[in-house]
Amino acid sequence: MARGRFQKLKNKGVEILSVISAVIIWQLVADYIVRNRFFLPSFTDVAEAFLITVSRQGIFPFMGMDMELPVLLVDTLYSLMHFSIGLVAALVIGIPVGMIMGWFRSLERVFDPIIEIIRPIPPLAWIPFAIIWIGLNPFGAGFVIFVGALFPIIINTFTGFKSVPRIYVEAAKVLGCTADHDLIRRIAIPSALPSIAAGIRIAMGVGWMCLVAAEMFGVSRNGLGFKIWHNYYLHRMDFVLVYMLVLGFLGLLIDRAFRSYLEEKFFKWRTGVVM
Q1: Is the separation of the CB atoms in 49 and 242 below 8 Å?
Q2: Distance CA 212, CA 233 (A)
Q3: For 193-249, what is each residue's pLDDT tens digit?
Q4: How many CB atoms lie within 10 A of CB 62?
Q5: FRET partner for 84 with CA separation of 20 to 30 A, picked from 11, 33, 151, 239?
Q6: pTM of the predicted protein model
Q7: For 158, how many CA atoms within 13 A lie in the half-sphere containing its CB?
Q8: What count of other Cβ atoms lies within 10 Å of the Cβ of residue 19?
Q9: Section 256-272 average pLDDT
Q10: Pairwise CA distance, residues 150 & 199, whole Å
Q11: Residues with Cβ < 8 Å from 210, sequence gap 6 or more?
């Protein structure tokens, strides 16, 4: 087992060396060229700020109890809650809409012009309506994330359904599968699944990028995005970088976990295809 781990580490040698080199360059530039913590905190400044955020305690309400946790973990849990609200709503609405648009031509003609008019509007432009319609609460932040995540899901689901090979549908009809709901369940969904999964991955990325803005307008006093702006106003740029890096690593972790789950559960048959 130890030999296997060593081999795995050896195979990742270039990537590890690349990250270490970037950190060294960052440290040297911050210490000897910029020399100003406000403009560019060094790696050691950020590491020190990270330890402070981990050592401080915060309160996370859970099922009527106030749980005392490291403040960084509390902020992460709040952000994951906002992100989950938006993404789940986008999945619940986006996938069915994309499916019916891709399968029924008449419904595509009904929905397409509306979606094409609304889709180019940036998610951040919806913040005033998020405040008016939903208020300053976690669902308000979730709404902005929902708007960002919705359209990639609709478009990719629609494209996946439109790309179902006609010969599959004809063959299913010959074998007695004639009802629309049977054709959708047995032919269209399996065929469109790679495109739907790609849409969800894009939606997760867009929704995660909307998180900072979604937490800016006072939905709570916690959250990774909120703390970025809070520390900026306090001129603590080392803490700003800590929260930015946590956002980056967490986004990467979510994407990798989703990819691994898909490949393990649904795409084993796609040997050699990069998802």
Answers
A1: yes
A2: 15
A3: 989 999 999 999 999 988 888 887 777 788 898 999 899 999 999 999 999 999 999
A4: 10
A5: 239
A6: 0.84
A7: 19
A8: 10
A9: 75
A10: 9
A11: 86, 123, 124, 144, 145, 147, 148, 149
